[in-house]
């Protein structure tokens, strides 16, 4: 439920609403809403319907909502990791070539002796 609370907090911030604003619209106390955002309180289906309506989205959209900025960061992170993986792959190929060269060198020395 902490993830849902984070999503709700993010949506609230995007709307520029305070916890008090949302609590009033949901007809609950500020501490009760704060507990929802922090994940202390589990949200029942009727409260989930209220919250999703408040943010003008379906329950499914609310539950699957992802921060667009976080998605950009994740894409950027993925790009960095992908580049690092490619570089490591090239290093492995170089090391394999060195192993083959050393093996060939050892083999030629044995054949020479």
From TrEMBL:
<keyword id="KW-0238">DNA-binding</keyword>
<feature type="domain" description="HTH cro/C1-type">
    <location>
        <begin position="8"/>
        <end position="62"/>
    </location>
</feature>
<dbReference type="InterPro" id="IPR010982">
    <property type="entry name" value="Lambda_DNA-bd_dom_sf"/>
</dbReference>
<protein>
    <submittedName>
        <fullName>Helix-turn-helix domain-containing protein</fullName>
    </submittedName>
</protein>
<dbReference type="InterPro" id="IPR001387">
    <property type="entry name" value="Cro/C1-type_HTH"/>
</dbReference>
<dbReference type="Pfam" id="PF13560">
    <property type="entry name" value="HTH_31"/>
</dbReference>
